[in-house]
Specification:
alpha/beta, 2 domains, about 30% helix, UDP-n-acetylglucosamine1-carboxyvinyl-transferase, Chain, 14 helices, binds ligand EPZ, 24 strands, four-stranded mixed beta sheet, globular, about 425 residues
Length: about 425
């Protein structure tokens, strides 16, 4: 397992090309099953989660071209199998997103029940409830989930008890193929939902309201070949903005968009960053001292849970105490013990972490545990005194394209050591 060796102290300054959003690419690749025809995608991030999804689609019978410079051509005409094995779902939970398109296209699908992961139990009940509402039958058998809809899916009103990104994608893809109209209420409003809806519309679906709390979908079975460009990854952009804030640098995130940051923009500014649009994206720079800011992670447009760990690193060096509450997942504080090893002053109490700013962090050996926690440790290494060795960097490869290249080009001293 490779490690990153980072020598802290250099300001993070320069321009970073933001890749396509992993969390849009994954549902869009799953949705391509619906069309059963050729699809041409651009700005697809070259990260291991995307490669896992392409491997899954190939295993189901899709013809997948080479992913190069963000461009990908694939056809799901050859998809015949509607079963996905446990090992793929275990390796990447987002594989669960293929369930709805498989049921919609073949009338049945069998998928392994995804287990929990480092950040929580990650249930899928909301996905299954949405499919039931659209007329599917769901049965459980020894860790597998059998979903059948022999008469096809029928439009319905789906009201989510709580916004769920994945379950909203599932409902959207299923409703797009159902007979008649569906209304999806209290759905997730993340920008990636609107991007998936745009792709489904390019393939022939009729969808209104994606990105709001209510989406209207007119089902179709008249799918057509589609082209789509994936939207930029807002979490990648914000992670590099935090790097500039931590190290007193100035970064241009090419492709970054203010409207995709939601509450994160305001909270990053309150913490001491200046953020403003450039003609290619956004610029973020540190304007003075870092200030402690209280944060609770929420569904979009609230502060994103995927930025919580990175923001915590920023608060480790702020001028007071901040309380960071994780409002989405039950155990997304795996980065805390590692940051404490670097000298951070953090106290955990249930879903809240109190971070008291310290003058500096010390480099040491730390362990990556999940994608975003790993980024918080890399960010800490950029500003820590001395050398930081981050173990198990494969977690980062899941969602940050060319992270070493992008960091190095902005002044970071980081080396990947192959184990
Ligand atoms: C998506 O996960 C993202 N993954 C996550 O990003 C992100 O953290 C999360 O949304 C929240 O924004 C992808 O898009 C591939 P949820 P998802 O359903 O869909 C509960 C990353 O680092 N819930 O919005 O699984 C759930 O337990 C990853 O890129 C149910 O109770 O998240 C959580 O508490 C990590 N039942 C809350 O809803 C369900 O059926 C929100 O989860 C589904 C979810």
């Amino acid at each position: 397992m490779d490690t990153f060796v980072i020598h802290g102290g250099s300001p993070f300054s320069g321009s970073v090309q933001i890749a396509g959003a992993k969390n849009a690419a994954l549902p869009i690749l799953a949705a391509s099953i619906l069309g059963g025809g050729p699809v041409s995608l651009a700005n697809v991030p070259e990260v291991s989660d995307v490669r896992s999804m392409l491997e899954l689609l190939s295993g189901l019978g899709a013809e997948v071209g080479e992913l190069r410079n963000g461009r990908l051509a694939l056809s799901t005409q050859g998809v015949t199998r509607s079963e996905t094995a446990y090992d793929i779902v275990r390796r990447m939970r987002a594989s669960f997103l293929v369930l709805a398109p498989l049921v919609a296209r073949f009338g049945q699908a069998r998928i392994s029940r995804p287990g929990g992961c480092a950040i929580g139990t990650r249930p899928v009940d909301l996905h299954l409830e949405a499919l039931r509402k659209l007329g599917a039958d769901v049965a459980f058998e020894a860790g597998e989930i059998d979903v059948t809809a022999p008469q096809g899916l029928t439009g319905a009103r789906i009201v989510f008890p709580t916004p769920s990104v994945g379950a909203t994608h599932t409902a959207l893809m299923a409703a797009a193929s159902a007979k008649g109209e569906s209304e999806i209420v209290n759905c997730a409003r993340e920008p990636e939902i609107a991007d998936t809806a745009a792709f489904l519309s390019a393939m022939g679906a009729t969808i209104e309201g994606a990105g709001t709390h209510k989406i209207l979908v007119q089902g179709t079975n008249a799918w057509r070949p589609a082209r789509h460009t994936i939207l930029p990854d807002r979490i990648e952009a914000a992670s590099y903005m935090v790097a500039a804030g931590l190290t007193g640098g100035r970064v241009e995130v090419i492709g970054g968009r203010l409207e995709h940051l939601g509450a994160a923009c305001h909270l990053l500014e309150a913490a001491g960053l200046s953020i403003f649009p450039s003609d290619r994206g956004l610029i973020a720079e540190r304007t003075g001292a870092l200030h402690s800011v209280d944060v609770t992670t929420e569904a979009f447009p609230g502060f994103p849970t995927d930025l919580q760990a990175q923001f915590m690193t920023l608060m480790c060096l702020a001028d007071g105490a901040s309380v960071i509450r994780e409002g989405i997942f039950e155990q997304r504080f795996m980065h805390v013990p590692e940051l404490q090893r670097m000298g951070a002053d953090i106290t955990l109490s249930g879903s809240a972490a109190t971070v008291r700013g310290v003058p500096r962090l010390q480099g040491t050996q730390v362990m990556a545990t999940d994608l975003r926690a790993s980024m918080s440790l890399v960010l800490a290494g950029l500003v820590a005194e001395g050398e930081t060795v981050v173990h198990r960097v494969y977690h980062l490869d899941r969602g940050y394209e060319d992270i070493q290249g992008k960091l190095t080009r902005c002044g970071a001293r980081i080396e990947r050591v192959r184990q």
